[in-house]
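Readers outside the structure-tokenisation community will struggle with the description of the input data as it stands. What matters is that the chain and its backbone geometry are given together, residue for residue. For illustration, here is how one protein appears when written out as sequence plus structure tokens:

…
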Amino acid sequence: MDKKSAAATSAGVTSSHEVFGAPCWITLMARNMQDAQNFYGAVLGWRFRRAKLGAEFSLALSDGAPVAGIGVLDAALQAPGGWTPYFAVANADETAARIRERSATVAVGPLSLSVGRGALAADRDGAVFGIWEGELIPDWLTWRKNAPAWVHLRTRNAFDAAIFYGEVFDWASDKAGCCQVDYEQEEVVLRHEGLVVARLSSGAAEAAPDPMIRPRWHVYFPVADVEATVQAARHNGGEVLARSSTDHGSEATLRDAEGAMFTITSRA
């Protein structure tokens, strides 16, 4: 660890240089900020405050701790809203170059902000993700363990995707602190310091009419009561897309009032 990283750690701030390759933040892009806050406040119990990026961004809090960001889509854009995970990187420019070199797309950035640099990209199958170089939220270790539970890539071929992301983010490399990759029950499982932070599974189809089947990164949130959360989502204009019981616990995939999809899980 260099002097800058050591100083940041002693001050309670975690740097993306220390946790490179791991999901480090999630953001919802919505059409209407107030509607999004009303929905997630009622369904997941979040509270909100303005973020440093301006009036069109807010920070979601759970029990006072940062959970996610919410931004407003430009009215001129035809792109649908949705949840996007951001991955910590040591160098945003180098990572963006790696993405392009592997026939994927960097749609926005890297852009310089007050505490780091970020970019928005899409992999070769069209799944959207972000990269972030710089400071993470001060309580990032707690965030990693609680919100989200993990992120899940639904892709055409999980093994091909693991190679792509592994080369981009230095997964399973010889670098100290990198994420580890395992193959379990036909899924690729990504761990950071022993904790599952992402899963990759096959079977998505880019041209599928059902958005559930298209390639995408999907966010899982832990909740105390799946059934109560499902009812709250229905009551506030959301939709239940799927219910299941897995080794991870009871789960329900929901769509918010604007169409953004996410899954709730009873994982403790």
